[in-house]
Amino acid sequence: MSSAVITGIGELTTNDPGLGRLRDAALVVEDGVVAWVGAARGAPEADERVDVGGRAALPGWVDSHTHLVFAGDRTAEFEARVSGEPYAAGGIAVTVGATRAASDEELAANLRRHVAEARAQGTTTIETKTGYGLTVADEVRSARLAAGVVDEVTFLGAHLVPPGADAAGYADLVAGEMLDAVAPHVRWADVFCEVGAFDEAGSRQVLAAAAARGLGLRVHGNQLGEGPGVRLAVELGAASVDHCTHLTGADVDALAGSPTVATLLPACDLSTRQPLAPARRLLDAGATVALASNCNPGSSYTTSMAFCVATAVLQMGMTVAEAVEAATLGGARALRRTDVGHLGVGARADVHVLDAPSATHLAYRPGVPLTWAVWRAGARVR
Ligand code: NIG
Questions:
Q1: What residues does N-formimidoyl-L-glutamate bind to (predicted)?
Q2: Alpha carbon of 298 to ligand 1 centroid (Å)
Q3: 223 annotated as belonging to a binding site for a ligand
Q4: Is CATH 3.40.50.10420 correct for 61-335?
Q5: How far is 273 from 275, CA to CA, in rounded Å?
Q6: Among 45, 163, 294, 380, which has the minimal tally of Cβ within 10 Å of its Cβ?
Q7: Is the CB of residue 299 below 6 angstroms from any atom belonging to ligand 1?
Q8: Domain residue limits, the chain
C-alpha cells in the first residue's frame, strides 16, 4: 500500500457535507483513494509529502457531456455562425462523414488528444458519446474506441436521422439492431430530442428500448427551443437532461421535483448564439444543476471546464461555490457516480490544485490557465 499527503492547501473545496470548505488543509491518499482529510497541522505521516504552498484545491472536474469520437473540423460552419447563420443540427452530418472515413487509429488519436487536453486543465472524469457513426458498424466502433479511454460511454445512435434515411425506419434500427450491438460497450443511452433530430415518439422508442436492456438514460433536450425533452427525461427517470436552454415554468418545476439532473452547457450556448440556460431559475426552484463542456467540433469546441465555470458565474447568476459544485459534484450526480466529484474519505483521489489562493479566482481571473497540478486516482497526471 502506498500513501501520500498533499499538504499546504490554502483552501480545500471538499464537496463533502460534513467537511465543507477547509482552510490550511491536507489530505492523505492511499492506493488512489482519499484516506484522510483535515487540518494540515493534524495530518498523519505518509510515504510521500507534497506541499502545494497555500494554493487552492478542489475535486477534479467531472465533465459529464462530451462528443469526442469524431474526425474532421467545422471551422467554416463556425465562421458562418459568427457571421449570422443560425446553428442547425444538420452540421452533425458533416462530422458523420469525416468520422466514417477516418481509420480507427485516427479516431483513437483524436480522442486521446482531447482527453489529454482536458486532463491538463483539471478534468479527471469524462463521459463521451457515440453519435457520429450512425450505422451499426460505425456506432459499435465509436463505443469500443471510447470504452478504452474515458470513464463513461453513452450510445447516441439517435443523434440525427442520417441524410436520406427514413425517420421511422432509422428509429427502429437504433432501438433494435444498433442498440443490441452497442449495448455491451456502454453504460448509457441518449437521444437528441429536438426539431430536426428526433421527435418525442422516436425519442421515447429509443429510450424505452435502452432501458429495457438495462442502460441508464440521458437526453439532449430543449437546446434550440422549448420541446418535450425535459418532460420525457423526467418521466422516464433519466439521470440527466442536457442543454436545458429553453425551459418553460413546467419544465423547471418538473426538474425541481425529480432526481433528473439539469446539465447546462454554457460554452455551447455561447458558441451557438443561444441565450444562456436559466441556471438561477433552476437552482432557486431546487433542481440539481451540473455544468459540462459539451466538447464537440460543431456546437462547442472546448474542453475547458474552467471557462464553463467562469461563464456560469459571470453571466448566468451562479455563485462561485454553486458553479464549482455543479462542475464537480453536479457532474458526478449526472453520471450517478458517488466516488468522484468530492474529496471526502473514500472518494477517488482526483485533486485539482490551482495556482491561486482561492477557487474564486476561476471567475475573478477568467481565461487565465490556473491549473497547477492534477492527481487522478492518486496518480499525478500534471
Ligand atoms: O450537444 N445537440 C446535439 N449534439 C451536439 C452537437 C453536435 C454537433 O453539432 O456536431 C450538442 O450540441
A1: 132, 296, 298
A2: 6
A3: yes
A4: no
A5: 7
A6: 45
A7: yes
A8: 3-59+341-380, 61-335
Tell me which of 265, 294, 295 to substitute to probe ligand 1's pocket, judged by most ligand atoms within 8 Å of the beta carbon: 294
Distances in whole angstroms, Cα of residue 12 to Cα of each of 109, 271, 277, 337: 35, 32, 29, 21
Asked if residue 220 belongs to a known ligand binding site, the reply is: yes
The reported pLDDT for the residue numbered 3 is 96
Neighbouring residues of 32: CB distance < 8 A, sequence distance ≥ 6: 348, 349, 377, 378, 379
Going by pLDDT thresholds of 50, 70 and 90, the confidence category of residue 332 is: very high
pLDDT at 41: 97
> Is 243 annotated as belonging to a binding site?
no
The strand pair at 21-30 and 3-13 is best described as antiparallel
369 three-state secondary structure: coil
Q: ipTM of this predicted complex?
A: 0.98
pLDDT at 90 over 90: no
CB atoms within 10 A of CB 82: 9
Distance between Cα 11 and ligand 1 center (Å): 36
Q: What is the mean pLDDT of the chain?
A: 98
Which residues have C-beta within 8 Å of that of residue 145, sequence separation ≥ 6? 69, 104, 107, 108, 111
Q: Distance between CA 29 and CA 49 in Å, rounded?
A: 10
CA of 40 to the centre of ligand 1 (A): 44
Topology of domain 3-59+341-380, CATH: Urease, subunit C; domain 1 (2.30.40)
Number of H helices, E strands in the chain: 15, 16
Question: Maximum CA pair distance of the chain?
Answer: 67
- Confidence band for 264, pLDDT divided at 50, 70 and 90: very high
Residue 351 grid cell? 485533486
Query: Quick one: pLDDT band at residue 115, thresholds 50, 70, 90?
Result: very high
- pLDDT of res. 275: 98
pLDDT of residue 1: 76
Of 324, 303, 301, the closest CA to residue 312 belongs to 324
**Residue type at position 357:** P
pLDDT digits (tens, 9 = 90+) for 197-231: 999 999 999 999 999 999 999 999 999 999 999 99
What is the bridge-based pairing of β-strands 188-193 and 152-158? parallel
* Cα 296 to averaged position of ligand 1 atoms, centre (Å): 7
Q: Is the beta carbon of 223 within 6 A of some atom in ligand 1?
A: yes
